[in-house]
Specification:
Blueprint (H helix, E strand, L loop, with lengths): L4 E3 L20 H25 L3 E8 L5 H9 L7 E5 L5 H4 L5 H4 L8 E5 L8 H4 L5 H4 L2 H14 L2 E9 L2 H13 L9 H7 L2 H14 L7 E5 L3 H16 L3 H23 L2
Parallel strand pairs: 2-4, 2-5, 3-4, 5-6
Antiparallel strand pairs: 1-6
Bound molecules: adenosine-5'-diphosphate (ADP).
């Protein structure tokens, strides 16, 4: 059984029930070893997906400041063929982006067949930060859950495998990480008073996340909640889930690749005997 906590929208979801320090009774050394093994498998699966060109992979990462989105992306990128993977950060919308509907900038970054996109924040910001700070009226953001579901359904039906992860840290862990940043001159580029300001809205974000996760999860397109106080556990859990998500496609991708090769070889042979 995989360790990521699957939320499929069938019942009301509460973050409070999930311990951010949980590490599934796995110790650090074992998790790191398993990450390496899983990483190799992931590399092979992604190569196969790229070669067969039938599906694409969209990884959505959400979590509070310091929850480890950047670190996780580094860990994933360490196990992939960089040619087929792009990490895309979504920041405060630019003037041009803000002049369009909220999914416009997102849709453009959905991976093409064979490719993978990792969203560092995503369209979910439009029902998180936007809701918490009332950047648009409730009548607008409350419609967005339905719009997100329709959008994700469209993307999925076009062959994109969606994997949505919420990195779950505790309030104490966040404080520790923010203070550790302040103490480390090498992390100066990450220092932002905004992180302390957002922390004051902790409970509002909890509510917004619980709603986003509950309302935008289905059996076919669940959310995965990942206890993330332990960085080594977080990366292991996400990698394990990604391998689990891609594995069912392996046989078909192999077949497609074989069929492609046969067609190409026939063409080459026909050309040679001309
Ligand atoms: P990060 O914290 O992701 O490493 P930044 O410090 O640049 O990077 O933060 C990006 C900021 O952009 C976050 O505070 C996030 O809430 C904000 N943001 C992202 N999408 C939106 C949006 N649609 N509307 C308003 N703010 C957004």
């Amino acid at each position: 059984m995989a360790h990521a906590i699957e939320v499929d929208g069938s019942s009301k979801f509460s973050l409070q029930k999930i311990d951010p320090s949980d590490h599934g009774k796995i110790e650090k050394e074992e998790a790191e070893e398993r990450l390496v093994e899983l990483g190799k498998k992931f590399y092979d699966l992604m190569d196969l997906m790229f070669a067969s060109g039938s599906e694409s992979l969209l990884i959505v990462l959400q979590g509070r400041d310091t929850s480890g989105k950047d670190g996780l992306i580094r860990d994933i990128m360490g196990h992939v063929n960089a040619q087929s993977v792009h990490a895309i950060p979504f920041k405060v919308p630019t003037e041009d982006e803000a002049a369009h509907d909220f999914l416009w900038r997102i849709h453009k970054e959905v991976p093409s067949k064979g490719h993978t996109s990792i969203f560092n924040r995503s369209h979910y910001e439009d029902v998180l930060v936007v809701r918490v700070h009332g950047l648009v009226p409730k009548s607008v953001w409350s419609e967005r859950y339905k719009q997100i579901n329709q959008f994700e359904e469209l993307v999925q039906s076009n062959g994109t495998i969606i994997q949505k992860f919420y990195l779950h840290i505790s309030k104490d862990e966040q404080e520790e990480r923010l203070r550790a940043r302040e103490a480390d001159p090498a992390k100066a580029w990450k220092l932002a008073v905004g992180d302390w300001k957002e922390r004051e809205f902790w409970d509002d974000y909890t509510e917004a996340y619980e709603d986003a996760i509950s309302k935008c999860a289905t059996k076919d397109n669940p959310w995965y909640v990942v206890p993330a106080n332990h960085k080594w556990y977080r990366s292991f859990v996400v990698m394990e889930q990604l391998v689990k998500a891609l594995s069912p496609f392996e046989d078909r991708w192999q077949e497609e690749l074989k069929a492609k090769r046969e067609v190409a070889m026939k063409e080459i042979e026909a050309f040679r005997t001309k």
